[in-house]
Amino acid sequence: MKIYFAASIRGGRKDVNIYKKLIDFLNQDNQVLTEHIGDPNLSDEGQKQMTDSEIRNRDIAWLKEADLVVAETSNPSLGVGYELAYAEKISKPVIILHNPDKTRLSAMINGTSYYQHIFMYHSVDEALEILKKVLPQ
Q: Which 8-state DSSP code applies to residue 69?
């Protein structure tokens, strides 16, 4: 299965270690198209070797190619919100992981009936257990 993993880049990279662990887990039995999200060397300035338009077009192509979107939403990000709305628009299944100890989940996400798989977690181990239970086999 191809997975589009969405998480903050320009909105802040303080949770990159969590992203890396989630991506490594997802990559065990699947293909994560957006592995770069877990790269600790990727700063909040993003991928400077590409224009914003190139990044957007590549990411939309990956969203279309993916079988599933997994989004970590604890660090608010305009890009992740856009990706989630696009996933809804093209009817991609979505799993959302959010740590309520860090921030409140946006009402625009939590209040959208399309997102039926929103899971709160408090540690990365708990997030991994959630994924083990809810990922399609």
A: E
